[in-house]
Structures are given as C-alpha cells and as structure tokens.
Amino acid sequence: MITIAHLYYDLLNLYGESGNVKALKMALESIGVDVTVKLLTTDDELDFTEYDFVYLGMGTEENQMLALNHLLSYKEQIKTAIEHGTFFLATGNAMELFGKYMIDQTGKKIETLQIFPYTTKLETFRMVDEVLAKTELTSSPILGFQNQFGVIKDSNKPIFTMIRGIGSYPNSKTEGYMEHHFFGTYFIGPILIRNPELLEYFCREICKEKKIKTRKKLKLELEKKAHDHFMEHYYKEEKATN
Amino acid sequence: MRKTITIIIGKIFVLVGKLLHRGSSLPGGIALKLYPNLMHEFKMPEIVIAVTGSSGKGSITSMIAEICKKDGYQVAHNSKGSNLSAGITTLLLEHSTLNGSIKSDIVIAEVDERYCKYVFPCIKPNYVVISNITRDQPPRQGHFDLVYQEIKKALTSDMHLIISGDDPMLQKFVLEKENPVTYYGIDKNRYSYIVSKFKNLNFTYCPICHTKLIYDYYHFEEIGDYHCPNCHFKRPKIDITCTDIDYDNKTITIQNDKKTHIPYQLLYCVYNTLAAYTATKLIGIKEDVILSTTSEIAGNTKNFSVYQYQGRNVHVLNNKNENSSTFNQSILYVDRMKGEKTIVIGWKEISRRYAFDDLSWLYDIDFEILAKHDINQVICVGLHCYDIATRVKYANIDEKKIKTFDSLEEAVPYIKEKNKGDIFAILNFDYVIPFHELMNGSEKK
C-alpha cells in the first residue's frame, strides 16, 4: 500500500500538474500495488509520517505564498520525512519552497523551508521555453517545458543537464535538485507522463524502498510512442546522437 | 501639424489597405512609428465601450456594435479583431477628422487583455466589459493572475465595469478598485449542477480571507453561485439575470420575460449575449431593439455546427489550443448529450506563434468527464495524436477504444465507417474547416 499526498492540489495546479499524480497512481496500480491518493490543502492537518510520496505542483505567486505559509509549520516534520526516505516531487515553483530563501519581485526576502542550500530570486520577466535534457535517471532524453519568474542559484545537486531550455537560470547548463528521495525541478506539467522512463524510475524506486515485490511490468506503450514521436519530429538530430 | 500629417498618412494607408484587403493593424502601426503619442491625440466621442478578457471579446464587441447600429448610432468598431495598440489606432484613423476628432457617435473597441494598459489611457472608455480571465496561452500570458494584474493597471475609477457576477475572480476588480459596476449572471436552471465537475480551477478561495468558497450550484468550472463561509464575500446581487436557458430551442430568457435566441447551444453564448445586453441597456438602448438584434445574430460553422452523416449526428465544436477552458466548454456540451458517442480530438499545430510547444494544458482539460459516457471510440488526430491518446488514457478511457491518426485525411474515412454513435469532434480551429470538408456533411440546423 502506497500513500500519495497531493499537497495543495487546489492551489498549486497551474500547468496540468495533476497528471503526475494520475500517472503514478495508474502505473503503480497496474503492477498490483494498492495506492491511496490524499488530496490535501491549507485547511487540512498534515502528517508526513503517513505519506510515502509527496507531490507539489506549480501555482500563481499568490497561491504559492498561501501554500508556503501553511507548509512552514511542518518544517521539522518535512525535514525528518526527507531524511527518512519519503519521496518528494516538487515541480515548477513548488521547488522554490524547499530552498534556503526566496527574494520576491520587490526585493523582499521570504523565509522558506530551508531544507536545501539553493536560493530563489523572482525576476520581473517570465522565462519560457521547451525543454530537452539528460539525466542519469533515464536513458532517453527528458521532454518538458519551463514557464517561470524564478531563477535558482546554488543548486549543487542537479538532476538534469540541459540540451535545450532555461535550466536553473538563463543559460545555465543544469536544472533541478535531488537529495535523498527529494526531487525538485522547474519542469512544469505532466513530466512523468511525457517521460515514461522517469515514471518507470519512480515506480521502481518506490517499490524498492517499500520492499514491494511484483512481477508485473509497466505498460507504457502510448506514452513511449508520444515521447518517440515528439523526439522524431522536433529533435531528430539529438536523437541520432543519443 | 505633426498630428495632422500623421493622420493624413495614416488615412492613406487605411485606404490602400482596404483596396488591397490587407490586415487592419498596418496603418495604425505605421502612424504610431511616425508619431508614437498619436493615440492620445484623438478626441473621443461621448460613449466609448471597451471589451476585454480571455475569450468572447470579439463576439461581445460585434453584438454591441450591431445593436448600436440598429438603434441608429454611427459606430466605430474594430470588426476585424485587430485589438492591439496598432489595430486600435487604425480604427481611430478610419473614423477621425483630420484634426483627430472621432466622427462616430460611439467607439466600441475590442482590446487585447495585455494592451488595455496602453489603449485605455488614450480612448478613455466609460464602459469596460471584462468577459472572463481563463487559462489561455500560458507560454504568452504566464498565468491568469498576471492577466488580471495587467487589466487592473488599465482601470481608472471613472470606468463603469460590466462583468459576470457568477465569476468570483472578476470580483477582485471590484474589491480592489471602487469602480461603478453592473453585474450580469445566470440563475440556477436545468443545466446547472451541484457537485463540481472540473478539477483544475483558477479561483476556489475567498480573495478576502482565503477560506475555501462554497457553491450552491455551478454553471461551469468555478462559475456559479458562491459564498465564503467565513466572511461577507459572495456572489453579488445580479443586475441583469438570465432566468432560463433552453438549449433545445436555442433561446434564453432575461429578467423573467425577455426572450432572445442564441447562436449556439453553448454556455459562452449565453454569457456573451448577457454582456452585450447589459452594455447596450446601460447606454440607454431599448430592450426590444437589443433583443431583436441579438436574436438575429447568425451562427458561424467555424465555431459550432451539427450535421447528419448516415443517421449519425455530427457535432463539431471549435476550441483554442493552449486554452483548456474552451475544451472544457466543449466537454460540458458533450456531457449534456445522451447515447453512444465517438469522440474526435485533434489539431494541426499547437500554436502558430511560437517556436516551442507546450502540452501541459492538455492535463487542465477534464477529459475524465467523458469516461462516464458510453464511448465507442476516441479518435486522436494530428502531429500530437499520441500525446492526445495518452491524455485520454489517463482520463480512464479503455486504451482499446483509443485510435490514433497522423492526419484528418486518414482519420475521417475511418470515422465514417469503423465506429458507432454520434460524433463529437472537439477540434482546434485549424482543423474545423478541413474536418467539415472531409465529412462533406450537410447542415442540419
């Protein structure tokens, strides 16, 4: 039995992020694992000892602050959960909440969870681009999209090497932050669906961590076709060199 | 002097543009290059109505213009939809004297939501219709809150707002500004529902105290009758109410006894008509003039049509990629229909505007609603057919029912022969006409 907490599902839901939770649930269930998804928000009490996988997505700047204010009272719990191996996936600006601090568009410093060493500065301009990146977690390149005000500095444990896209900041070579089972990335939207190998990676790691044995294999044919088709159409050259 | 010369040059380009049937933003664009401050120099007529928002602004503006013309006004209206600074300048050039006085009685301007801040200080609208702020082109707009901020920058306290009271987000304008406001809205009716159908909503918390809003009923997404359980925030008293909708006969009733036709059986038509009704009533046009005009607004098959093909109804619904709300409206339409269905979803390209393609918005559309229906097949068409198919799979539709085709040319013969039930084609605008041509269906209604 796996419990997925989809935190602030109604506030941090800007760019189709619910797709990531759908993907995890459907994939784990297809290999015979029972999954409970808890939709939690600012009027709920959180208990991080109950969750195996915590997901947070992207929100407007205002909603991001509502989520942060609620999350701050669970700072120690979250830290302990991460150290004990609970999976966290924070996409879009949810990633910013786990860093050292944020500087908002007026220059004001905002206290965040201070779990990881990276810092965020919100620019006054929006950075938007398609993503093509590499990671050790998968053999195929990662497809995604970035659409953000935030730039992250001092992320010393990145997940991705950028081939195309903004990365942690304009012209940076890397993106994301990973430590224990925490994964933070600015890649928005349903990255686990667009990158079926990443979904396979998470399912494999969750089963390993929870000592779940299953003989069933994930069936992600449509997802793989979508990925291949996109690669074929948009990144023929990159595909040839991989 | 510089003003007059620029106006003369601008007018020449307007004339040349008309002769060549060219776009309507060019003359204004050239004039603004010659004289960047030109837009400030026009002398506006007594009534200026601006219409902005994510969607519906073109239809609302046209309806208002038609009603005003019917009532005998001389109307200046950017009917070709050029709604940025250059397009508005062209409109003013077309209708001005050489010293910059607008000759028409009334200016009715559709204005892009991100250009209000440049256009409003010049045209100084006395009435501003804000149709809605939805998820629309995230790569261009960022998100809906930024669009809200952009429109807010353009509003001054003398502008009379015309907005839907059913949309809690639009009330933020009233909370933060002290403008005069007139609300339109739809009462509970046979199509409203109690339990929210849509999951990825923009605005579910009270803007004053951040408590989750409670709904007595919904019309669509977060549109409906809401109140905050913790403070005084609630759906306001509606000034112009649609008291009944009858999609079967394509009519709506306003204020209990005033009936008018709507061009399609879709919710946005009701809101667009209400917005136009409210605006024109506010400037003093008589109800019978308004209603007889709105009743005559003809539908366009580019937006919506129903045919028959070998005993099957074919419903063709126009949508805008990167705008999940347009797709959700189509899904709400499909949700009203009974019986076995074949769904067609597709487009040629995601966006004509960019060198990159975002797919995240596909997951903001509640295709899950379709899973409750008797679905024969879902036909996914175009370059992104596998991305669409994957999305549909995660909506809990059996993978065996999902078919993929690279093009409409391959998909349509299959749709005609290999599946059953009424056909609902939920298409981006770039596939609507090609689909009509390939189906070769005859108009039913």
Task: Write a concise synopsis of the structure shown.
The complex is a heterodimer of chains A (242) and B (445). Chain A is α/β, with parallel strands linked by helices and 242 residues long.
Your description of this structure?
The complex is a heterodimer of chains A (242) and B (445). With 242 residues, chain A is an alpha/beta fold. Chain A has helices spanning 18-30, 61-71, 75-83, 191-194, 196-209, 221-234, 236-241, and strands at 2-7, 35-40, 53-56, 87-91, 101-103, 109-111, 119-134, 142-153, 160-164, 174-175, 177-179, 182-185. The termini of chain A are far apart. Chain B folds into two domains: 2-184 and 260-296, UDP-N-acetylmuramoyl-L-alanine:D-glutamate ligase, CATH 3.40.1190.10; 304-443, Mur ligase, C-terminal domain (Protein-Tyrosine Phosphatase, Chain A, Alpha-Beta Complex). Chain B is 34% helix and 22% strand. Chain B has 14 helices and 18 strands. Chain B is globular and about 70 Å long. The chains are: A alpha/beta (242), B alpha/beta (445). Chain A binds chain B through residues 10-11, 13-19, 22-23, 26, 41-43, 60-62, 66, 126, 128-130, 145, 147, 149, 188-190, 193-194, 222-223, 225-226, 229-230, 233-234, and chain B through 138-139, 142-146, 199-201, 204-205, 210-212, 356-364, 383-387, 389-391, 393-394, 399, 402, 404.
Fold blueprint:
The complex is a heterodimer of chains A (242) and B (445).
Chain A: E1 2-7, H1 18-30, E2 35-40, E3 53-56, H2 61-71, H3 75-83, E4 87-91, E5 101-103, E6 109-111, E7 119-134, E8 142-153, E9 160-164, E10 174-175, E11 177-179, E12 182-185, H4 191-194, H5 196-209, H6 221-234, H7 236-241
Parallel strand pairs in A: 1-2, 1-3, 3-4, 4-12, 5-7
Antiparallel strand pairs in A: 5-6, 7-8, 7-9, 9-10, 11-12
Helix pairs in contact in A: 1-5
Chain B: H1 2-20, H2 26-34, E1 47-52, H3 57-70, E2 75-77, H4 85-94, E3 106-110, H5 116-123, E4 127-130, H6 138-141, H7 144-154, E5 160-164, H8 171-176, E6 181-186, E7 214-220, E8 223-227, E9 240-246, E10 251-254, E11 258-261, H9 267-282, H10 287-296, E12 304-309, E13 312-319, H11 324-336, E14 341-346, E15 375-381, H12 385-394, E16 402-405, H13 408-418, E17 422-428, H14 429-439, E18 442-443
Parallel strand pairs in B: 1-3, 1-4, 2-3, 4-5, 5-6, 6-9, 13-17, 14-15, 14-17, 15-16
Antiparallel strand pairs in B: 7-8, 9-10, 10-11, 12-13, 12-18
Helix pairs in contact in B: 1-2, 2-4, 3-9, 3-10, 5-7, 9-10, 13-14
